[in-house]
What does this fold into?
Amino acid sequence: MKKKKLMLTVCLIILIIFSTGCSSTSEDEMLEFFADRAENFEKDDYSHIKYTKLARHPKDYETRDIKIRGEVFQVIENTDDDYTTLLLRVGGDWDKIMLVYIYNEFLDTRVFEGDEVRCYGLFAGLQSYENFFDMTQTVPMMYADKIYILNDE
It folds into this structure.
């Protein structure tokens, strides 16, 4: 248990470095860390935590493996950095926005606006972004290990 907590703490440090701009070595370490997580993916290892708890008490859940379901309303495919950013409406509620990052190599298929998805990954606290109205919005965020498209036909 202590080893897992230490690994999660190291991961959080790497995530902070990554989100503030890091060297290629840190990016490689982060990719390797998430590749290992994706390779050892087990649905039962992830907990459903209510959006409100994540938003109100983010420090209580940082580095926890969570699962969340929502409708994608914005997709940003960043091919230069090999990851995709998703903005989800959790429960169809515009007041419950979740930011999800996933490395492209862990996506089985492309994700589109309007897709209903279930995301499994590492909760990383809160992140601020500029919304459609050029206003800063701070929302819960996660790094996804796996994303399932629920309405894929």
Residues 1-24 have pLDDT under 50 and may be disordered. DSSP finds four helices and six strands in the chain. The beta strands are 47-48, 65-78, 83-90, 97-103, 116-130, 136-149. Helices lie at 2-19, 24-39, 51-56, 58-61.
